């Protein structure tokens, strides 16, 4: 027989959870009625670091953040990409600094962080944006590619966050942004390393958020971004069978708005927030059907490329 005290404790926690759920639902409803222009914070003069800022969504975010008055820093493995981002931001009247950094090298990340603090200042907003994709079934995936996917998409978030979070904690002010994916919420066949790394990125965000709250550092904000397919270099020509392909400029604008409004989780399109909840209640056989049947052409049916199979695409930074 169950201990009455344990039962009472569980019932009390359930009631607290229900009350909190209703409260935050109503809070979200009220916030939806308030125009965005009244909810955005001022980031003028803030130092914002964007990893993978040398191209794609990263570059677009740099341009939009600089337009808001932020001092933007881009880290990328491509020197030419960094230089082009800096050129475009400065041509638009913004401030931008570029550093060539290999995010797979922990010591290189820490060294670059030290240099950044000396030359630009402490980072106020960190955007962990860099990402890679290979797009092969697990038995076709080279070990080095799997390792690199995890290093760039998830592991380096630990190094970048550890490098800059200390100052944020001391000030109880700052923002850590994780660019994840809906692939970190729902599995997709043929993307085993990518999906697993994005699940890790989502878990990183959620656990960091819980840790900050538990330590009373509610001034340090966190945002996780979960978009569907975006027509960038990583997924150029990709089409989803069920969801729209997003335009990079739209995504970059929504991410910047999410930062300015301290949004905890951003789903793109916004109705995708329904998918993880529904996904939790779906039988495993349905997952197998939706994700394609192993051994036939259905294995890649969520994403199709006009120019070839996903596995033909090389890994590349966003």
From TrEMBL:
Location of the region described as Disordered in the Swiss-Prot/TrEMBL record: 285-304
Stored InterPro entries: NAD(P)-bd_dom_sf, Sc_DH/Rdtase_CS, SDR_fam
Predominant cellular place of this UniProt entry's protein: membrane
Membrane topology of this protein: Multi-pass membrane protein
Transmembrane stretches, start-end: 14-34
Subcellular location(s) of the protein: Membrane
Alphabetical keyword list: Lipid metabolism, Membrane, NADP, Oxidoreductase, Transmembrane, Transmembrane helix
UniProt GO molecular function: all-trans-retinol dehydrogenase (NADP+) activity
Pfam families (UniProt xref): adh_short
Cellular component terms per the entry's GO annotation: lipid droplet; membrane
Family statement: Belongs to the short-chain dehydrogenases/reductases (SDR) family.
Function (record text): Catalyzes the reduction of all-trans-retinal to all-trans-retinol in the presence of NADPH.
Protein name in the entry: Short-chain dehydrogenase/reductase 3
Organism in which the protein naturally occurs: Scylla paramamosain (Mud crab)
Phylogenetic placement of the source organism: Eukaryota, Metazoa, Ecdysozoa, Arthropoda, Crustacea
